[in-house]
From TrEMBL:
<dbReference type="InterPro" id="IPR032974">
    <property type="entry name" value="Polypren_kinase"/>
</dbReference>
<feature type="transmembrane region" description="Helical">
    <location>
        <begin position="118"/>
        <end position="137"/>
    </location>
</feature>
<feature type="transmembrane region" description="Helical">
    <location>
        <begin position="7"/>
        <end position="37"/>
    </location>
</feature>
<feature type="transmembrane region" description="Helical">
    <location>
        <begin position="239"/>
        <end position="258"/>
    </location>
</feature>
<feature type="transmembrane region" description="Helical">
    <location>
        <begin position="341"/>
        <end position="361"/>
    </location>
</feature>
<keyword id="KW-0418">Kinase</keyword>
<dbReference type="GO" id="GO:0043048">
    <property type="term" value="P:dolichyl monophosphate biosynthetic process"/>
</dbReference>
<feature type="transmembrane region" description="Helical">
    <location>
        <begin position="149"/>
        <end position="167"/>
    </location>
</feature>
<keyword id="KW-0808">Transferase</keyword>
<dbReference type="GO" id="GO:0004168">
    <property type="term" value="F:dolichol kinase activity"/>
</dbReference>
<keyword id="KW-0472">Membrane</keyword>
<feature type="transmembrane region" description="Helical">
    <location>
        <begin position="320"/>
        <end position="335"/>
    </location>
</feature>
<feature type="transmembrane region" description="Helical">
    <location>
        <begin position="382"/>
        <end position="402"/>
    </location>
</feature>
<feature type="transmembrane region" description="Helical">
    <location>
        <begin position="207"/>
        <end position="227"/>
    </location>
</feature>
<feature type="transmembrane region" description="Helical">
    <location>
        <begin position="422"/>
        <end position="442"/>
    </location>
</feature>
<protein>
    <recommendedName>
        <fullName>dolichol kinase</fullName>
        <ecNumber>2.7.1.108</ecNumber>
    </recommendedName>
</protein>
<feature type="transmembrane region" description="Helical">
    <location>
        <begin position="88"/>
        <end position="112"/>
    </location>
</feature>
Length: 519
């Protein structure tokens, strides 16, 4: 299974390399080859318990698929912005690619360094790949860009040491690279833009995303440190939690956002949300869907109480939420993507805040949330945090957030790139959902080495092609320019990756589909 997963990732890398064909795509190929070998060292460390931190069990390290996401995103973003003639974001793509490669190399060197005896051949291969990447960076990056890349690496190292210690068994090494690497990059971008706010670069909704992500992470770190010295389950601690959340929100996050967007954040948000009648209709519709999702949770828990305390939600029941999320995102993508962008940021902040309330048992809702959400746990929620619903939201939202709007003057990219914002809907909302439902109910032929079925994968590919046809009908901005073969190949590769990966597919699959469609 690991070999097939690696082969699929290498096919994605080679596909991007064939389209781009520059020094950075060659570096991506070198990185993929060395990550393939180092991945087995990480797997052995996890099996022997020799890794520095406690990682999520029942999964391989996922180093190769995770290592290639950020570099490939940077490479395809650079190429799209170069074609559009937007130099600033072309350089930004180069910085993203270089940062991703350096973070992946750091994780590879860490694995090689703690493996005993030292694997000589893997060390040589890592050294060659590292030399190629550093040589390319030396001749491609300016001094300020090199400093920026090193700043992200420094933040990543410290953030990893803190969060992997505080949150054991929540991530595999690959998932930690993706999540913590992304948070480190966002934090560095926020610091950089806060210091250079006079330049006036960036859209207010971009600043809103940066401040929201950094704000909720800092909030979590603050309360984790605080509640090591006091019991978080008492009423006094709960009152202190709510009071300090308000203080940090109104005293730190709001002024920070005000400095960036040069206007009152609350007034700006209210004006933005109710700017048009379409937005008002969408907000009412999304409120109805949110109430429906809560109704599913309460109904399933009532069913558990009446049947058995050991009752767990089935795979099909969990996929109800995928259907609800698809129904949420598709109208937003068609009618108002900026509103969807901001609404997804708000939803992420609310989800993470509620997870803090559940984790710290904050009164009056902490224990209730623990009881309600325990029904929907699966084997991937083996750590102290429940992250699968947050990963689902991230998987649907990242293609919207990472869409290079400045390099798409008409609001959409040409060819298959027009489907980039729909990557989450196609890969997770449609593909993963249909594969799970049909595979668990009708599947008989299993893929070698996995529990996934041939029927589930084929049905997922067919469903995604039908979804692309429906998008063409209902979204007039999408024009594929006869790039149907590339779309079919992209969907097929990502669906096969879903069958073989043991990583969080809600997070990984949309990013790989976005990379293929942008390429």
């Amino acid at each position: 299974a690991v070999l097939v997963e690696s082969l699929l990732v290498l096919l994605v890398v080679l596909s991007v390399h064939a389209v781009v064909w520059d020094r950075f795509s060659w570096c991506a190929v070198a990185l993929a080859v060395q990550a393939f070998y180092v991945q087995f060292k990480w797997d052995r460390l996890l099996q022997q318990g020799g890794a520095v931190f406690q990682f999520r069990g029942a999964a391989n390290s996922g180093l190769l698929p995770a290592s290639m996401v950020i570099p490939l995103l940077g490479v395809v973003m650079k190429e799209r912005c170069r074609a559009a003639g937007i130099v600033y974001f072309e350089r930004f793509g180069i910085v993203v690619a270089s940062t991703g490669m350096l973070l992946a190399l750091f994780l590879s060197v860490l694995a090689v360094g703690i493996t005993k005896p030292v694997p000589t051949n893997t060390c040589i291969l890592t050294g060659i790949a590292g030399s190629v990447i550093i040589y390319t960076m030396k001749h491609s990056l300016t001094v300020s860009e090199v400093i920026e890349v090193l700043e992200v690496l420094l933040i990543f190292v410290y953030l990893s040491m803190i969060l992997l210690y505080l949150l054991p068994r929540c991530f595999t090494p690959g998932e930690a690279l993706l999540v913590l690497g992304g948070v480190s990059f966002v934090l560095n971008q926020l610091i950089k833009r806060s210091l250079n706010v006079i330049e006036g670069r960036g859209d207010p909704i971009d600043f809103f995303l940066l401040v929201a992500v950094v704000g909720v992470v800092l909030l979590g770190l603050f309360f984790t440190v605080l509640f090591t010295f006091m019991d978080s389950g008492t009423w006094i601690s709960s009152m202190f939690f709510h009071m300090m959340t308000a203080v940090l929100g109104l005293g730190v996050i709001m002024p920070w956002l005000y400095r960036l967007i040069q206007r009152n954040p609350l007034f700006w948000l209210l004006q933005f949300l109710f700017q048009t009648q379409t937005r008002l209709y969408l907000l009412v519709y999304w409120t109805f869907l949110a109430a429906s999702a809560c109704g599913v949770v309460f109904y399933q828990n009532a069913k558990r109480s009446s049947e058995s305390k050991k009752h767990q939600a089935s795979t099909i029941t969990r996929k109800y939420f995928h259907f609800i999320v698809v129904a949420t995102y598709v109208p937003g993508l068609i009618y108002d993507r900026q509103l969807l962008y901001v609404a997804a940021v708000l939803c992420l902040a609310v989800f993470i805040f509620l997870e803090y309330v559940r984790y710290f048992r904050i009164k009056p809702f902490g224990q209730t949330l623990r009881h309600l959400l325990s029904l929907f746990l699966d084997e991937r929620d083996s750590g102290p945090l429940i992250l699968t619903h947050i990963y689902l939201l991230l998987g649907m939202s990242l293609p919207v957030w990472l869409f290079p709007r400045s390099c798409a003057p008409k609001g959409t990219l040409p060819g298959a790139g027009a489907l980039v914002p729909y990557s989450g809907v196609l890969a997770v909302g449609v593909g993963d959902t249909i594969a799970s439902v049909f595979g668990s109910t009708m599947g008989e032929i299993k893929w070698p080495g996995t529990k996934k079925t041939f029927e589930g994968t084929m049905t997922a590919i067919f469903a995604q092609i039908i979804s692309v046809a429906l998008i063409l009908i209902f979204d007039s901005s999408v024009n594929l320019n006869s790039s149907y073969a590339w779309i079919l190949a992209s969907v097929s590769l990502v669906s096969l990756l879903e069958a073989y990966t043991t990583q969080i597919d809600n997070l990984l699959l949309p990013l790989y589909l976005q990379i293929m469609l942008m390429a």
